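Supplementary Note 2. Why include the ligand at all?

Several targets in our set were suspected to adopt different conformations when bound, so apo predictions alone were not considered sufficient. For every target with a known small-molecule partner we therefore ran a joint prediction. The input for adenosine-5'-triphosphate is given below.
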Amino acid sequence: TPVAPSNFLRHVIESDLTQNVYATRQWGGSPGDAAHHAQGMADPAKVRLRFPPEPNGYLHIGHAKSIWLNFEMAKEYGGVCHLRFDDTNPEKEEQEYVDSIRDAVEWLGYETYLADRPSAPGTMQPHEYFASNYFDFMYRAAEYLIEAGLAYVDEQTPEQIRTNRGDFNTPGTDSPFRSRTPAENLARFREMRDGKLDDGAAILRAKIDMASPNINLRDPALYRIRRATHHNTGDTWCIYPMYTFAHPIEDALEQITHSLCTLEFEDQRPFYDWLLDRLAEGNLIASPHPRQYEFARLNVTHVITSKRKLRQLVEEGHVDGWDDPRMPTLAGLRRRGYTPDALKLFCERSGVTKSGGWIDYASLEAALRDTLDPIAPRAMAVLDPVKLVITNWGELMGGDEVLDDCTAPLNPRDPEAGERHFKIGREVWIERTDYEDVQPKGFFRLFPGNKVRLKYGHTIECTGATRDADGKLLEVHATLVPDTKSGTPGADAVKVKGNITWVAVADALAAEVRLYERLFAAEKPGSGELLDELNQHSLVKCSAFVEPSLAKAEGDAGFQFERHGYFVVDAKAVGADRHVFNRAAGMRDSWAK
Ligand code: ATP
Ligand code: MG
Ligand code: MG
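The joint prediction is reproduced in token form.
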């Protein structure tokens, strides 16, 4: 699924390639930095992109957009894309999340484009990048800024810092610590590093312009004190770099060419350039340095794309874990029956633009149908079963126990796919909604006196039904119309308007089918109280009967249950003695109703 032939990012990359911008990249740092420099630079002219998730939760559909964009563009321009764990915040990051992110990227099929070299010795996995591996370099970069008079240690309280930053209408006020000498700042920063100050007692700030109209340039924080154990570096550090300081450095060290991010970061771009310009002047990084470009984040109606809010749903037990099939996480979408191809098609259709908007949830389902329809094996399943008895079966077929063989194509769209086989007998399960005592307008299925075809089987004529004292339907009765077996000569001589799905009582498999509705009733969730926006009826479980061809069904490959939509075996139910199927999407857009 390629990225659309024309988008603004392509123009940037193609123009940089034409002008050989990165082929001329020069670097003149100290030998210690050469290790970083040498890391990726087999070919400096290569387009080098990255996907930099923070391992503080599972990836969601929004991340899929970013993964798809970066990896597809890198692939297309003969470049590479780094999977980089942006793990500079020790408190919220966990190994479980690192593993889940790796799984998701691999599942989407991008592991082979991860990098053009193995990682440095001592890193966790080949072809993966960890921001925390650059902590030493980041520290040196901070000392460089201090020595150059471009950073200072501020010991105002967090409250004072906030107040003195000013706001949109008011310029900021200089900190009393702003005029410290480089030597004083260096000594104090080393004390921060050595654990001589309490958490929150001081921060390192860039010295830029407290009156800048861009508040991000009013001496942004670079380092803070935080005594927390880091999943990679343990207790080595008690100071940690701020994201806005760390991220440009990560890009520069990995020799990224184009740093693609979402629009929220637009106001950070001046600082990104300020920092890398200063570090390039100091010969700490190569020139020209990476450039940041912003695109609109993906928003999908009825879906939350915020790891923090998704974590809340998991932790408060509103869903059954990060991979609950209702979750918009890649793990959840996978368990629900979404495929990598469907998600990539969805990303492509959603476009790469500079202005945000909401994509209709229906287009996610449409992408699934469009990718599965040509390839998904078909099967019959009866979700709300009631028994149909063919009362003259024994008489016509030579005994009540006699079973007849039926054949159906695995996929009518793909004649090569082969056939499936199942039985028909005196008793079959049909959908409860396929019978009515009195014909409603436009209804051509079962009602007394009407003939229908049991799909791939015989034509029957409905003779009536029995009900219990409460009026609940118990059994539907019908008679077989002779010589109407599907696939035999003259089978269609008796014309019928209804063609219904069924499974034989004799060979049907009992199954549990899980029907999912949108997790959020609110069209644009995330603005109000999360729990008020939840759909309380997002999961319906039904006891169903399915075709025997599904006995060995397993794995990620989906099925089309005729009439009902696209289903997949629930990954957590494999191996259990019950067959559990999740519905990924209905046959057509049901959201419109
Ligand atoms: P969240 O708010 O869910 O935690 P994030 O942006 O903080 O999202 P990161 O782990 O930092 O999460 O994201 C990694 C990359 O994925 C970033 O480059 C980010 O811009 C991108 N990304 C995150 N959400 C979306 C989205 N909805 N659409 C497109 N890209 C996204
Ligand atoms: Mg982030
Ligand atoms: Mg976030």
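Residues 99 and 365 are 27 Å apart (CA to CA). The longest strand covers residues 459-467. Comparable summaries for the other entries are listed in the accompanying table.
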